[in-house]
Amino acid sequence: xxxxxxxxxxxxxxxxxxxxxxxxxxxxxxxxxxxxxxxxxxxxxxxxxxxxxxxxxxxxxxxxxxxxxxxxxxxxxxxxxxxxxxxxxxxxxxxxxxxxxxxxxxxxxxxxxxxxxxxxxxxxxxxxxxxxxxxxxxxxxxxxxxxxxxxxxxxxxxxxxxxxxxxxxxxxxxxxxxxxxxxxxxxxxxxxxxxxxxxxxxxxxxxxxxxxxxxxxxxxxxxxxxxxxxxxxxxxxxxxxxxxxxxxxxxxxxxxxxxxxxxxxxxxxxxxxxxxxxxxxxxxxxxxxxxxxxxxxxxxxxxxxxxxxxxxxxxxxxxxxxxxxxxxxxxxxxxxxxxxxxxxxxxxxxxxxxxxxxxxxxxxxxxxxxxxxxxxxxxxxxxxxxxxxxxxxxxxxxxxxxxxxxxxxxxxxxxxxxxxxxxxxxxxx
Length: 429
Hints:
This protein is of the alpha+beta class. Helix content is 43%, strand content 18%. It has 17 helices and 11 strands. Strand 4 and strand 5 form a beta hairpin.
């Protein structure tokens, strides 16, 4: 189970196939190794604009043809742009796998210059940006990147209004030719399908893609320019929240599985140490969310805590105190074994989802070194090999508040009074 087969076609396109005969569905995921970090300077948002533009059908009168062509089968189709990749996903009933491959090929292999279509998509993206204010300046994401010192190189994945308006058809065409190539693209198919028919269909429909790209893994710009600790606060008497951003290791670290495990132990779910301290022991919160964003050359762990505005200073104080406790906490071999088993079972349950498995396979193949690009059994072996020394190494980094970037929204009267006393400086020291 969860055994994927890798096939490289004649034009260099890599297919990762996981056949699941008992499944009633098929998930198709294409990952392209280019995202926001590949945007040319001054034209931030280009990768995202291209994603939108490719989704717009050029040969049909209906611009939403791709969406409707999948949805008429009861399926779903979506795409999103990341920091260093762009992903296209289709989920359908097993009987509709071949039609879905045809739709994906039309999206990825059918670039046609249409100035009117580009202008429409740019306006759609700008309308999307209006939800968070001019250039996203009211969003956690924008504030976080600004604090990290990446305002110039990565001003939110979606870009800036001014930079989006500068993007031309020739710009998009150059970006497409540079990065949408078979040696920079992986397609995973997970579910119930006929392997021979699927391979032939992809060979036929993707044959026009070239196999030479620029190297998207070589980024000239430094991502993290600032050093923690840093704190920004915003007054809001009605809503409260804390975003804790911890810069961490990239996907390329040898401690990858240990990093994932420690993020899970610290703040993912009701079993987590942070949830236990803030809710079960102190009753300060109802819930929290954790996102571990890892790319080829950097990583960030974001923890968002929703709270009552007047609890802001108490939770911030507890957060810093908890980090010191966890950094010095002793873990036994028995505890580590239990956590590894829980983590492995959790991943197996997630891999039951065809769409998640397809994305996971692509990430391991396209972004990680070949040492990591293997099936789930190899991942299990690496998790089982995590030692207490590995845990200590990663823990000392994550729970060191000197690396932290904090954004606080809530009732700032008590927080400012607390800041003025110098208590937070002492705790972050």
